[in-house]
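From the pipeline queue, job 12 of 40. The input is one protein chain; the requested action is below.

Action: predict structure.
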Amino acid sequence: MRLIIDIGNTLAKVALFEDADPLAITYLPVLTIDALELFLNDNGLARPEEAIISTVRQSDDAFIDYLKSNFRLLLPTTVTPIPIKNRYSTPETLGFDRLAAAIAATSMFPHRNVLIINTGTAITYDLVTSNNEYLGGAISPGLQMRLRALHQFTQKLPLVTLKESVKLIGSNTHESILSGVLIATRAEIDGMIEKFNNHYEELAVILSGGDVKYFDKSLKNSIFAVPNIVISGLNQLLAFNFGKKNH
């Protein structure tokens, strides 16, 4: 049994895996020792022996010490062995969530060029080649960030709530903001997919992240929706380093 922890900008995702199968997953705005213990005790599963944590936030030393004391812990760094080649020119600035997603993508589509689009606080585009080389990609603001920016950097525009179905032509300010944010972002993603398609043959496209529901049925390009690709990649990385089969 493996404990997988992915702490993003908005939510912490915690999962238990048996080999390649996620048996339990929870999402928390703040992950504490008490919250983790509650999750481990309430799911009715065996206590994990191994753990991995990836975080884009400042590390909590007390929490890390707890993990080290209770599990065989893998804290990924730039020197951690990985099953793909990392060609990013500044690996020390690369979030391990992006690299984990690339690791999972190569196992889903071996010997294929794969574009992974993660729609969370930011929208990231990451390319891994058919030669198992992670090249990098692009980062743009996520949906909530765009909505908040319109509100915070103007005096009169309201902060609106996202909906999956919006009008192309807004008949009021609320609808106009939704059109400008959601429909324009969908066009951005479709445009980026087409640009990557022009450079990489037989490209597979994976869509993931917390905002996947706003895009998976509306993009004109063919995509594979995989909501939890990062935790899947972290599980594979843990298995790769600790010598157990992951599938």
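Job complete. The chain is about 35% helix and 25% strand.
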